[in-house]
Amino acid sequence: MKTQNLNEKIKQALFSADVEVVKQAIEKISIDGNPLYLPLLFDLLNTMPEHEVELEIIKLLGSVKDKESVNSFMRAIENEKYKTIRKTLISACWQNGLDFSNFVPVFIDLVINNEWEVAFEAFTLIDNLEYLPNEDILNVSKQKIEDELPLATDQVKYFLTEILTKLN
Length: 168
What we know:
The protein is mainly alpha-helical.
């Protein structure tokens, strides 16, 4: 990372009424790679911006490579404020390839407790994990699945069974 401070001009440009100004700000963030802008990008995405802006943000989120960004993504995914963009955020997580293995139990909860599209994205993220979590997280995850399986709908059962297979 080159910069670890927020540039006020970029911050203001993100929320400009001019789509081109916003797109230029997103491009600048992409080049600088500063993870401190992620919450602002989540906020902007949550406002249902112009389609062009939305696509630029999604592209940027899917290409984030800074390991420190994992916690920012997880805070947003778990925050009810971002419920309307949760599916998009989870999709960006499996696209960017960062290591979310320590959060497998959170994604299992998302599979269990959310509508199909969010559940599918959470399932996809787990299914695409390059590394499995440590033994403690694996045990918590497996127990969570075993507890939920008898109560789950057919779709959720399928996801949970597949996740259990991956975790074994």
